[in-house]
Amino acid sequence: MAEPGSHPTEAVLSALPKDVRERWPVAVERAARKAKSVLPDQDANQLVKVAQKAGTASQRVVWLQRAASAWTKPLAQVAACRRGCSHCCHISVTITAVEADLIGRHVGIKPVRPSNAIRLQSLMQRDGAVPAVEAISALAAPAPCPFLKDRACSVYEVRPMACRLLLNLDDDDLLCRLVPGQDVPVPYADASQLRTLFLMAQANTPMADIRDFFPARTEDAGERRTPELHRLRIRSVP
Ligand code: SF4
After folding, report:
1. 184 located within any domain
2. Which residues contact 99 (CB under 8 A, 6 or more apart)?
3. Which of the chain's ends, N or C, has fewer CB atoms near its CB within 10 Å?
4. Ligand 1 pocket mutation pick from 82, 153, 157 by most atoms within 8 angstroms of CB
5. Maximum CA pair distance of the chain?
6. Is residue 5's pLDDT more than 70?
């Protein structure tokens, strides 16, 4: 079920379109049921252990990304996410500098070091660990991801952790559809353990939205710019 405190408020729900508003409680129940119905992939734990012994930050990130892919494999079979659905490529995609370098090497572009980058370590000193991780997940996105091409990910093999961990456990994409100016709750699978592990392993690494690491690519996507949107990250399973 949704984590305590992660449900949208009545005010948020009442501002949503009727079909979205009515879907939310149904979707939460459905997501919890689905999450209980899948058997966890044992490879995920093994891959996390390998990551913890990795010699470099870059290797650690790659192994944790593999662990994330293993963790999502059984859940993907019951999720609403389908190839060609790109709603989550229009919301915030926070990545670390290490991930930016991996993507940069893959596409042959050197990422910039964004002036607005933040470090988890600094946020934790100010706010504590849990609010800091939440703040990282809530950065807003002003445009589609620059690596979205023809509604598909053009860097799929090296896509960031944020993309690997996002799975809507509803039956269709209704709650993923963007509603300009509004936060729409989505019954995402609860990836908080892996996400926290990943972020804590890079607490002193600069983090920013993927668009800020690749501004030239984002400018290329200028005609596709969307109003500032972000999404409440509602998690549905323990
Ligand atoms: S990296 Fe790929 S999956 Fe992630 S937001 Fe960009 S296009 Fe979408």
Report:
1. yes
2. 61, 158, 160, 161
3. C
4. 153
5. 52
6. no
Asked whether residue 23 is domain-assigned, the answer is: yes
The mean-pLDDT minimum among 27-41, 91-105, 136-150 falls in 136-150
CA of 11 to the centre of ligand 1 (A): 31
Task: Kindly give the number of the ligand 1 atom that is closest to the alpha carbon of 152.
Answer: 7
Supply 18's token pair.
């009727």
For the chain, the straight-line distance linking the first and the last C-alpha, in angstroms and rounded, comes to 7
Average pLDDT over residues 5-32: 87
The whole-number pLDDT of residue 3 equals: 40
The total of other beta-carbon atoms located within 10 Å of residue 191's CB is 22
Tens of pLDDT, residues 102-153: 999 999 999 999 888 888 888 777 777 667 666 665 555 567 899 999 889 9
Q: Which domain holds residue 160?
A: 10-235
- Amino acid identity of residue 72, one-letter, is T
Q: How far is CA 70 from CA 32, 39, 63, 153, in A?
A: 20, 12, 11, 19
> Measured from the CA of 159, which atom of ligand 1 is nearest?
1
User: Is residue 5 domain-resident?
Assistant: no
Does residue 141 lie in a domain region?
yes
Pocket lining for ligand 1, CB < 6 angstroms = 89, 93, 145, 147-148, 153, 155, 159-160, 163
| Range in 156-165, 206-215, 228-237 the model is least confident about | 228-237
Q: Which of 163, 176, 209 to mutate to test the pocket of ligand 1 (most atoms within 8 A of CB)?
A: 163
